[in-house]
Amino acid sequence: MNGMVQVPRRTVLVCCGTGCLANNSMEIYKKLKDKAAELESGFPVIPVLKATGCNGLCERGPIIQVLPDDIFYCKVSVSDVDEIFERTILKGDVIERLLYLDASSGKRVRSFKESEFYKKQFKIALRNIGQIDPACIDDYIERGGYEALKKALFEMSPEQVISEIERSGLRGRGGAGFPTGYKWRQCSKTNDFPKYVVCNGDEGDPGAFMDRSIMEGDPHSVIEGMIIGAYAVGAEKGFIYIRDEYSLAVRNVSKAIEDAYIRGYLGRDIMGSGFSLDIEVVRGGGAFVCGESTALMASIEGRVGEPRVKYIRSTEKGLWGKPTVLNNVETWANVPVIITRGAEWFSSIGTEKSKGTKVFSLVGKVKNTGLIEVPMGMTLREIIFGIGGGIAGSGKFKAVQTGGPSGGCIPEALLDLPVDFDSLSDAGSMMGSGGMIVMDDRTCMVEVARYYLKFLSEESCGKCTPCREGIRRMLEVLEDICAGEGREEDIELLLELSETVKEASLCGLGKTAPNPVLTTIKYFKDEYLAHIKEKRCPAGVCKKLTSYRINPDLCRGCSLCAKRCPAGAISGKQGKIYEIDQGICTVCGTCREVCRFGAVEVAGRATE
Amino acid sequence: MKVIIDDKEFEAEYGEYILDVARRNGIHIPTLCHSDTVPGQGSCRLCIVEVYERGKNKVVVSCLYPITGEIKVYTNSEKIHRMRRNIIRLLAARAPGSEYIKKLKEEYGIPEETRFIVDEKEKCVLCGLCVKACEKLGSMAISTVNRGATKKVAPPFEEPPVDCIGCASCAHVCPTGAIEVRECKGKRVIWNRTFELLKCTSCGRYFITREQYEYMKNRLGIDMKELLCDRCRQKSTAEKLVSLYKKLLV
Amino acid sequence: MREKPEEGILKVKSILEKYPKERRFLLAILQDIQKTYNYLPREALNEVRDYLGIPLSSLYSMATFYKALSLKPKGRYVIKVCDGTACHIRGSLDIVEEIKKQLSISPGEVTKDGKFSLETVNCLGSCALAPVMVINDKYYGNLKPAMVKDILESTGD
Lengths: 608, 250, 157
Ligand SMILES: Cc1cc2nc3c(=O)[nH]c(=O)nc-3n(C[C@H](O)[C@H](O)[C@H](O)COP(=O)(O)O)c2cc1C
Ligand code: SF4
Ligand code: SF4
Ligand code: SF4
Ligand code: FES
Ligand code: FES
Fold this sequence. Notes:
Oligomer: heterotrimer
Number of domains of chain C: 2
Bound molecules: flavin mononucleotide, iron/sulfur cluster, FE2/S2 (inorganic) cluster
Largest sheet of chain A: 5 strands, mixed
Strand order of the largest sheet of chain A: 12-11-15-13-14
Strand content of chain A: 5-15%
Order of helices and strands of chain C: HHHHEHHEEEH
Shape of chain C: elongated
Largest interface: A-C, 57 and 43 residues
Shape of chain A: globular
Strand order of the largest sheet of chain C: 2-1-3-4
CATH class of the largest domain in chain A: Alpha Beta
Helix content of chain C: 40-55%
Number of helices of chain A: 24
Distance between the termini of chain A: 80 Å
Helix content of chain A: 25-40%
């Protein structure tokens, strides 16, 4: 192009994460790209288009950012493309209606960074996501990528790397918060070769997607972390185990590995340092238990994913019986930043025992759903009501579930709990991998417990008695309670079985499986009692224990419910009070959903 | 090194399993999935004990917990007893058909099950020993299938297993008598597959399936020139092998 | 197999050739076969056994353990409705009910014409769009039962 005059560039970032792709963002990207290609030279700007990873704001997708102007558009559709191109990309004009609507202030903001959702966040693991094209290694390098690797290889000894990680206080982001530096040291001390490094990208927690976003949106950060870790412990081979459903993550990580080989960051004699490492992607087979470290290793070895007894640690005998360091995706993604910016900087963020930040997928009945990264120690209230903007719709906050099937439900009374590894465990829940599911008064806590136990009874590997048989029986009891067949002694029985399953199971799946039951009994016992004694589901979720009534004092006779009821169970005359025929009603809840006056109320089991 | 089990002191070797030390010294810990010939399962969890190590208290399975430092072990504390009873209750609810489990149930005074749905005919407790035994012999004809609550032991496609040699090691190793073996008129039926039995040329007793014989000859390279049952053929290589099978059965 | 057996075996052979004869590639091989045929045909498993020298019992064990593998043919369009937690509390089961009604199949089944099969899965990683389903590779988010009919009708061969 024009060699003399510097033509300004405008970078257009189109989010092409799974969420936005679901909303057609690829078509938007292609159309913009075509338009840019058609553009003849001589224009005052050069548009540079990039397909980025997930911004974490999937709910408002497809998302487009225009730089350097820092204009942030949400819910863009293909029909908006022409206008965006003509006005914003070529001229720098802002299209008001596409700007981000801040749920808390009700205002539209030009830059995403001005939103409440963004302001309280602190990005380390998500530092590049949404800002770079994950398929382009130069984008990563431009933002300081692979600098940490150079520093580690040429300025630090393996011992120094380990001690830096130890001093940073980094704890594993995949579950229990095991100190990462300590794990590395254990492995480096073991004098047995070859050694392996493994990245756990199984992300089995149903309701969490932060690891997916990182692998899709910034795969090099994980790879760089792994190379540094491998150098520190002396490993020569690495595996990235990616959940089966994550096809885009598999693609992007594989591409990133290829590019890293081409640039000499992987393979023999990395950048002339004498250190060599190979990394391979392994696709998971679709089993939650394969997120457990020993089951994951069995799966990499080409076996059924059954955990083994872990009285000897994987850092001594892991993959193929050799010393192995296994860390979570987010843990690995933190490593390069710690090496670049130092342990002191990292450990200045967070709380005394939980350093740094944590990524959460904030979902459920909250206004702003999406991926967030916050410093450890922020309270649940700040997260849910600050960043999350509070409860969506007309419901009232009831509980927040953290830690997935291994975690528990935390009630309103504990909303001021600082979010870190230890506080959550003390509350009977868990940090887990970072799922955070907000529940309102239309969520039944007994049904939530039933839901998780059903999940676990299917996902348990079935090897050991307490987990396989215990969960199955607890589920039987919970199903009875939800169906109105619960007995008074059932709560006692659940507690007793919980103890055995928790203490006597072989692996972490069984050892944490009772948590959803224990926390809901602890904090929401009255809901259990309502189901068992009064045969009533207060949330109106358990169909056998629910009927709907129209409150004559509130009904305005608008007829909307009668029109929408798919079973035709509602009768009445316009302007008069409507009524539900309990014999016909299928308890689908549509009437309750549509009534604008809150006249449809939940009652106990229908007596007719 | 020293180890304290139920407040008594015993000698143990570094890395020895708690169960082995306890047994040697006459302390009874109930087991189900443990077998000296196919160790390493840790699946039934019946043998749980409480361990105090470096100020920490934890529940472990004695059949696989190696003694590597100073520990105190309680094999039947109140907590262990309570949990073991629950495990037996769960096993009994799963496999009420097994005599062995019935005995355990009586021993621990566990009442008849009234809360859970039970399948009266089921005998398998999924300890996994049969699969391990078959694997160790090298035929690998059966495996666990499915996972979670629906896990079971079965041959591929739940059809008569092609790789099975009819040795019945699986049935012998099974603690609950869950694998059926029928023998009559020179035939053995196991896993719904019928095997022809060969006679001992000396005493005329049926003692080995044809497939088993072939297997020894072709895969293990042991050629029995004369077909002699173990009673008739002493100190022969064949005998060693058959007794090797037998060891597996204990 | 759907095509003539010889052709089928050829495809399996070309999958096998991509991998060294090591046990650790077993899962990847099975997944490739699953992708090619939409299930694991028996003949294909026999080929894998011969290639890797792994007994049929282990292959059967793998095939029944991992959810990504199936021994029964699936539909040409596989509908995966997410019943992860986020989707569950936003009404994923109502979506499943609606699909059951529209197609007269339950999760785990295939329509008579072989076009659709229905499954529930645990989180598709798009929780912010809950409830979510995916048909082959196409995602549908923020679903309502009323949207199901149109989506199914617009899914064509
Ligand atoms: C049943 C079960 C499922 C798990 N699933 C995951 C997972 O999906 N992703 C993950 O990173 N860790 C998972 N974990 C935790 C891992 O076992 C392991 O502790 C972790 O990956 C270690 O990495 P970290 O120290 O970096 O957290 C799971 C654990 C259990 C018991
Ligand atoms: S606790 Fe559950 S998942 Fe873990 S080994 Fe036992 S049966 Fe398998
Ligand atoms: S009888 Fe068959 S299944 Fe049983 S151990 Fe022998 S070969 Fe294996
Ligand atoms: S059949 Fe017997 S040996 Fe095999 S798993 Fe069941 S109880 Fe154990
Ligand atoms: S005998 Fe130890 S776990 Fe079964
Ligand atoms: S829970 Fe449905 S996409 Fe995550």
